[in-house]
Amino acid sequence: MNRSPYRASQRICVPCRLAAIGVVVAAMAGGFAYVAGWLTPQRLTTHRIIDAFEANSGPHAGFRRNHAKGVCVAGYFDSNGNGAALSSAAVFAKGQTPVIGRFAIPGGNPGAPDTSVPIRSLALMFTQHDGEQWRTGMNSVPVFAVRTPEQFYQQLVASKPDPATAKPDPAVLKAFYAANPETQPFQAWVKGHPPSSSFANGSYYSVNAFNFVGADGNTHAVRWAMVPETLYTPITDAQNAEKSFLAADLEQRLQSGPLRWHLMVTVAAPGDPVDDATQAWPEGRQQIDAGTLVIDHETSQEDGPCRDVNFDPTVLPAGIKTSNDPLLAARSAAYAVSYNRRTREEALNPNLHHPQQNGDRS
Question: Which of 75, 154, 225, 361 could bridge to 62 as Cys pair (CB 3.0-4.6 Å)?
Fold first, then answer.
């Protein structure tokens, strides 16, 4: 019987195809190994960044590796429709969108004094009527200290407490700042703006740039801020003497009624840096008041709705996209590693509780 040359060539090439598949699998495995840092142990990985947080703050099983001390909040965003001119995201259509959020202070120690850092943070998760989510993590300073993940890791290493003093070595920190002049705008802003006396009267900034995409397909680079209706007042001497006052102050204020912030969207002009979070945009840029964030109640971290939320800032609905800021991908990866570690710790120890630390086990 005559055999088809085509079928014969198929049989002859079976080993070739298997070899080719093997090469592809090996390449993929090598790629995963490289990303994980297995083949290049000195290369910066997300796990090394989270390890540095743990080294600085100590082991706190079940807690976030950063922003460990916080409180859950909930409410809604009341859009006035103005943001729809820039983004097709449903959250900017006129109407209300439910919000789960979290106020916190930076750092991995859930028992740290509220005065241990001059920064407050606000994370939010908007859940649109179409089911898509917009998650954002904001800080009370409009610029970030460093530009790249590598610099961020170096800053963490430089900030590691000296065992003799339980505080970072000033000389090491000074050397880091001298070697990284990009940190100067952040340092200057913090020195010139005393911490707010409350979570309720602070402004919170996206820090990173994002892209809003309109219904017409046009893209606009933006940053945003939540600006409070409550009048800002700086931290008082009495508060400086307290270990924890922010959560109690928030609870007391909410007993008198909801708290409100205006979502102010700033549009970049051509040439404004969208990949460098250490640089503020010049004054005079177009700003849009897109609506009002209303927070109407708070809940303990032990059972609050934000407990198991990973506030990954790259979780975005249609109409919002990330920019090419290198910190965004690093933030997303770090949040994922932190989330996986704390949830694994809780799975291994279901009775893990830290009520005395007023922290967050999410």
Answer: 361
- Spatial distance between the Cα atoms of 188 and 227, rounded to a whole number of angstroms: 21
Stated pTM of the model = 0.86
Known active-site residue 67: yes
DSSP string, 291-304: EEEEEEEEE-TTT-
pLDDT digits (tens, 9 = 90+) for 74-106: 999 999 999 999 999 999 999 999 999 999 999
pLDDT at 45: 94
pLDDT, tens digit (0-9, with 9 covering 90-100), for 180-200: 999 999 999 999 999 999 999
SS3 call for 321: strand
Cα-atom radius of gyration of the chain, to the nearest Å?
24
Q: Are 229 and 261 in contact (CB under 8 A)?
A: yes
Q: What is the pLDDT of residue 32?
A: 35
Question: What are φ and ψ of residue 237, in 5° steps?
Answer: -60, -40
Q: Where are the beta strands (DSSP E) in the chain?
A: 69-79, 95-105, 121-127, 133-139, 161-162, 167-168, 204-205, 210-213, 219-228, 259-267, 287-299, 320-322
Residue type, 212: F
Residue 222 to residues 89, 264, 280: CA-CA distances in angstroms? 14, 10, 12
